[in-house]
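Troubleshooting log. The previous structure file for this entry was overwritten by mistake, so regenerating from the original sequence record. Sequence copied from the archived sheet and checked twice against the printout by T.R.
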Amino acid sequence: MKPTRVLIVDDDEDIRTVLHLTLEHAGFEVLLAKDGIQAVEMARTKAPDAVLLDVMMPRMDGFDALRAIRADARTGPIPVLLLTARTQTHDAVEGLDLGADDYITKPFDSDEVVARVQAAVRRAAQQRSSNPLTGLPGNERITLELSSRVKRDEPTALLYVDLDDFKPYNDHYGFLRGDHVLQVLARLLLDVAARSGPSGTFVGHVGGDDFVMICDPAEAEELAALVCERFDELVPDLYDPADAKAGSIEVADRRGVPQIYGMLSVSIGIATNERRDFDHRGELVTVATEMKRFAKSRRRNGSRYAVDRRDNGQAVELEVELPGPG
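Regenerated output below.
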């Protein structure tokens, strides 16, 4: 089992050294950064299991670094523990409001540092309930994320992303190739989410070929269109050359009768709370699921998304079609 990786961020070299020795002695793998800009970059590229983040630093302080880490779908789930002076309790309160998981006061006790880091990593693992194939947050974390946004009445869009004709693909190429498709789509969703604004976009894996994105409604259609466009660009590489050229595969159905299936695509249903209130996350999920089915029912070639809009109690469904490969 690989050691737990901790990123220490502090502009004070002496503090970095003490924390480095403390955590390394406890069996952690340690990464070091001296300001918030380095911290955000290393959180994205080094994938630490936890971040110890000082508040007062040059170039980018700990609060701005925390905001950036939380806003990026790739780094948002990482537990962050703030380092604050014992007299600066308001820093700890502000940091917790911004999404910090815990705080440690200076001067610190070595045993307490180790215990708090271990506890934060353990809690994050329990909350994340990651899908073992894609590494994305699973149903428990999706539920928490969506419920918290609905409870706070934040502007929220739920994108329900579903693969089309995935079962025939699995039957034709086998589960290893199918798993690769799911991993490709997961990476694509994370890459697209990284383009979102400061409010950030959450990406989760419901299970099977179902994924979700949770974002600001103002960005929902742009993100959905980009997912559709980029997935269709990648699709030919997921097939053997002859099948990619033909634009289809032949797979026997349950009765053994050969059927022709088109290329993989995604259908995305979008529901938002822009024009009406949702009292429970389940209502948002229901509408997004309906829109996903609507998009699938209008499928021809290539990926597409459908948006639900409410005006005076009446649903208006908008379908946007994007050209498929070939």
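Residues 89 and 173 are 58 Å apart (CA to CA). Archived copy saved in two places this time.
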